[in-house]
C-alpha cells in the first residue's frame, strides 16, 4: 500500500500519512478498554510502521547524492534501533508503575514521536525523482540545487533522472507533460512479475531475497526473545533479564551507528558478507551452548551461561554491522525509478511477514526441536544467506540510482562487481581507489 501511495501522492505526503496512522494507533492502544480495542490499535499502528519502514529508505535514497547515499539511507535503521533501545529503557521505567497504568503509558507514549515527525516533514523537500515523474522539472531542479555540491552536479543529476523517467534530454521547461501511467505508479507489478527484463528479474530476486533472508536468519528471535534465552541459560531474576535485554538494544544501536560511517567507504557486499559470516558463528555458538545447558543444566556449566549471553550480543553486533542497515539501503537503491517505491514496498512487506512468522512460531519451534535446535536451524539459514549474498548481489557503492540496472542481469553478483572494477581500472589506471 505504501509504495503505491508514495507514487500517487508523493514521498513527503506518505511520511505525514504514516505519522497520522501511527499517532491514531498509539492513542487507541493507550486508551483501550478491552482486548479487542487493544488489538485494533495494534493493527492501526502496524499500518503506520509499514508505511514508515517503506518510505524512509526510499526518500533518503532519492534525495541523497550517490557519494553519501549509503550513509543517509542507513540512518533510518539507526534511529529505528535507537527507538527500540528507548522502548527497552521506558519499559524498565514503566515497570515500576502500577500495572493498570504502566502498560498504557508504554503503548501510548508512541504518539509523541509521530507528532514531531509530521511537523518536521514540513521543512523537508519533496523527492526530486518523484517530482520529475510528475513533470515538475523546475521544482526538482530547486531540490537538487539544495542537495548537490554544485549547480553543475545538480544539472547532471537532473539529466540522469530525466533520462530514467523517459523524458528527452533537451526538455527544460519547468512543467512538462508526462504519461499518466508513470505519474501514479500504474502497471508496476506487471513490469516486475509478468514480463520483467532479465536485469529487472535479477533486481527483484536480490531486493526481495535480501529482505527475506535478513529476517529468516532469526535475528528477531534473538532480540525479542532474549529474556527467554537468558532464562533458559539460567538467569531467572526479572530485573537482571530486563537489564541484559537493554544491553542487547545498546549493542544493536552502537554497531549500526558505526556501520553507517563505513557503508559508503567499504561497500555493501563486504559489509553483508562479513556480517553474515559473523552471524553464522554467533548463532552456532549460542545453539551449542543452549543445547549443552538444556541437557546437563546451568549449574554444572555456569561458564556456558556467560558464553550464551555474549553470543546473543555477538549475533546482534554482527547483524547490525551489515545485514541490518544494508538490507534497507540495497533494496531502496537497486530498482529503476518507476519501479522503486512499489518494488521496495514489496521487499518491506516480505521482511515484515517473515519477521511475523519467526516471532509467532519461535516458541512452538523450540518446544518441538529444543531451543538449541531452533538456533541450529537459524545457523543453517544464515549459511544459505551468505551464499545468496556472495552469488547474487553486486556492489552498488558509488553508483547513481539511474546507473544501477547495468550491474544486474548475469545473476552472479561477484562477476558483475569484478567486471565493473576492471572497467574502472582500465579507465583510470592511476586511480588508487580503482
From TrEMBL:
Transmembrane segments: 12-32, 39-59, 71-89, 101-123, 242-263, 270-291, 303-330, 350-369, 375-394
This protein's UniProt keywords: Membrane, Transmembrane, Transmembrane helix, Transport
Top-level taxon: Eukaryota
Membrane topology recorded in Swiss-Prot or TrEMBL: Multi-pass membrane protein
Subcellular location field: Membrane
Protein name listed in UniProt: Major facilitator superfamily (MFS) profile domain-containing protein
Keyword check for Transit peptide: no
Family under the similarity heading: Belongs to the major facilitator superfamily. Sugar transporter (TC 2.A.1.1) family. Belongs to the major facilitator superfamily. Phosphate:H(+) symporter (TC 2.A.1.9) family.
Domain Major facilitator superfamily (MFS) profile: 1-397
